[in-house]
Amino acid sequence: MSGILREEGILLNQEIATKDQAIRMAGELLVKNGYVKEEYIEEMLKREEISTTYIGNDIAIPHGTENAKNEVLESGISIIQVPNGVDFNGEKARVIFGIAGKDNTHLEILSNIAILCSDMENVEKIVAAKSKDEILALLGGIE
């Protein structure tokens, strides 16, 4: 997986109270893994204010605004498994994908995640995964 998703970018079995906390956590993983600068997190929160990043099937994909592209160092994904879910404007997200795309790759990344997660069986596998390796195996095709 050409480095856009690393084991260090995955958190399992998280309890998250608010969508802002979920977005910050996803952004901090992106920062920690060297995908984005710290400022990207604020742009992720601004993006959520414009319109929700909840896409259905218990999935939210927070990402930065158009203005955030200068904060992206390289394309990357973070994943947070939230078995009990976190409220995204009345919808329950059980998997949070934080994404950052360099050179307009974010649309391709978004599309690949959306296709994988359009099958609820795949979402259930991500939510039920007991190890980071299981999640990496499931998401091996996202680039």
TrEMBL record:
Pfam families found in the cross-reference section: PTS_EIIA_2
Domain PTS EIIA type-2 per the UniProt entry, residue ranges: 3-142
Stored InterPro entries: PTrfase/Anion_transptr, PTS_EIIA_type-2_dom, Sugar_PTS
Gene Ontology cellular-component annotations: plasma membrane
Keyword entries, A-Z: Kinase, Phosphoprotein, Phosphotransferase system, Sugar transport, Transferase, Transport
Keyword Transferase annotated: yes
Role played: The phosphoenolpyruvate-dependent sugar phosphotransferase system (sugar PTS), a major carbohydrate active transport system, catalyzes the phosphorylation of incoming sugar substrates concomitantly with their translocation across the cell membrane. The enzyme II CmtAB PTS system is involved in D-mannitol transport.
Name of this chain's protein: Mannitol-specific phosphotransferase enzyme IIA component
Source organism of this protein record: Youngiibacter fragilis 232.1
The organism's taxonomic lineage, starting at the top: Bacteria, Bacillati, Bacillota, Clostridia, Eubacteriales
